């Protein structure tokens, strides 16, 4: 496929991360690989294939369209859990294809039972309860009635899981709120059990909770950001490294975003570079023109701020990032040539451009920066 830049995904990095997470959670906790948001920008299709090769057998997605993309490419059986959006047509498709899904409102429960009966096939659900995030989840006062209905729907609905989601476990600032959520969750799980249900999977933890609050792992963890090699926040990494002062960062990033020098340009001292007058050459300069701009997710806020790697050296973006092109100062890179590899994100020789530094400069969160990497940049798997 022709393209002006591409994203490499490292298989050995993923294997490393998955081995690390599985070792931390132990054999009795199910690992679910969260691949919403186009697998956090890594590309659902390429990432899912890699993840299966690395031993993943459980995926969590946000919506039916993501589940559909996943099913189209995986070669081995896997459990697929839809945590968010499902319209009624999609609900039917989900039940037909043995997908599991969250139920957090009356409407979806009624519809799931109706559709399952019509199909003559049981729907497998995870009951999401409200504990304080106030996004999705049944309010506690509704739970009794929902459980009564589930008894009536026993022929149509299998209650496999009960779950909730914490409102920011990656920051100790939210500690009390998270603990209150956990208390409410345990109360509701007790009610579910008292009503005669014994769900196989009780789950609450994302990456941050898995590491900050090991007792929230219960019997399944839904891990997103960490499998891609990123800590959910600097705080979570500090926490880990204080507990393991002898170890270096156990996670490895999968992503390398690369392109090539499109052409070189000499400019004279005093010339302006690019649109407008934000950069005036302080000396005679050599510029490398790089064929990536904001149309490819290279934020315009990195104008005169960003850094890229060329010939193993870190060099600055000069001037305004255009739609399809950015310019970097390579005056001090003596051997640079047209066609040389440019790393926008990731490693080259012993240097690296981290998502964190990139994200900080463009004032985006890791999560946001990754998921904004456009879908149509090709993703290539490397070792
Ligand atoms: C995104 C998400 C996760 C994973 O979060 P990470 O911080 O990336 O590990 C887990 N559960 C739910 C419900 C989510 O939406």
TrEMBL record:
GO terms, biological process: D-alanine biosynthetic process
Reaction equations catalysed: L-alanine = D-alanine
Transmembrane parts of this sequence: none
InterPro entries cross-referenced by the UniProt entry: Ala_racemase (IPR000821), Ala_racemase/Decarboxylase_C (IPR009006), Ala_racemase_C (IPR011079), Ala_racemase_N (IPR001608), Ala_racemase_pyridoxalP-BS (IPR020622), PLP-binding_barrel (IPR029066)
Top-level class of the enzyme under EC nomenclature: isomerase
GO cellular component: cytosol
Pathway it works in: Amino-acid biosynthesis; D-alanine biosynthesis; D-alanine from L-alanine: step 1/1
Pfam family of the protein (one): Ala_racemase_N
Keyword tags: Isomerase, Pyridoxal phosphate
Residue sites binding substrate per the record: 135, 323
Residue span(s) of domain Alanine racemase C-terminal: 254-382
Catalytic activity, EC: 5.1.1.1
PANTHER family: ALANINE RACEMASE, ALANINE RACEMASE, CATABOLIC-RELATED
Name listed for the protein in its UniProt record: Alanine racemase
Organism: Pontibacter cellulosilyticus
Gene designation per UniProt: alr
């Amino acid at each position: 496929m022709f393209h002006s830049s591409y994203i490499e995904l490292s298989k050995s990095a993923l294997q490393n991360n998955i081995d690390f997470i599985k070792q931390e959670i132990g054999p009795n906790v199910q690992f679910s690989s969260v691949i919403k948001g186009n697998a956090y920008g890594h590309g659902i299709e390429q990432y899912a294939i890699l993840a299966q090769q690395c031993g993943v057998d459980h995926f969590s997605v946000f919506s039916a369209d993501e589940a559909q993309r996943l099913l189209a490419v995986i070669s081995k059986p896997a459990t697929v859990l839809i945590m968010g959006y499902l319209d009624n047509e999609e609900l039917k498709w989900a039940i037909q294809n043995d997908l599991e899904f969250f139920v957090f409102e009356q409407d979806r429960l009624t519809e799931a039972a109706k559709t399952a009966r019509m199909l003559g096939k049981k729907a497998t659900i995870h009951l999401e309860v409200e504990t304080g995030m106030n996004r999705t989840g049944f309010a506690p006062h509704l739970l009794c009635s929902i459980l009564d209905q589930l008894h009536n729907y026993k022929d149509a609905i299998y209650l496999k899981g009960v779950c909730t989601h914490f409102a920011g476990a990656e920051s100790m600032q939210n500690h009390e709120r998270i603990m209150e959520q956990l208390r409410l969750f345990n109360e509701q799980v007790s009610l579910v059990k008292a009503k005669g249900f014994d769900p196989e999977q009780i789950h609450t933890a994302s990456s941050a909770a898995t590491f900050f609050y090991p007792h929230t792992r219960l019997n399944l963890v839904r891990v997103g950001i960490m499998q891609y090699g990123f800590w959910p926040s600097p705080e979570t990494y500090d926490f880990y490294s204080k507990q393991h002062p002898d170890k270096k960062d156990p996670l490895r990033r999968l992503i390398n975003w690369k392109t090539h020098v499109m052409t070189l340009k000499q400019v004279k001292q005093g010339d302006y570079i690019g649109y407008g007058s934000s950069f005036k050459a302080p000396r005679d300069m050599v510029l490398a023109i790089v064929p990536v701009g904001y149309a490819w997710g290279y934020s315009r806020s990195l104008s005169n701020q960003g850094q890229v790697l060329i010939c193993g050296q870190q060099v600055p973006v000069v001037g305004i990032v255009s739609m399809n092109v950015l310019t970097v100062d390579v005056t001090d890179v003596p051997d640079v040539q047209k066609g040389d590899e440019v790393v926008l994100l990731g490693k080259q020789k012993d240097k690296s451009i981290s998502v964190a530094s990139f994200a900080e400069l463009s004032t985006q969160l890791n999560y946001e920066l990754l998921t904004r990497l456009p879908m149509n940049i090709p993703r290539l798997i490397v070792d």
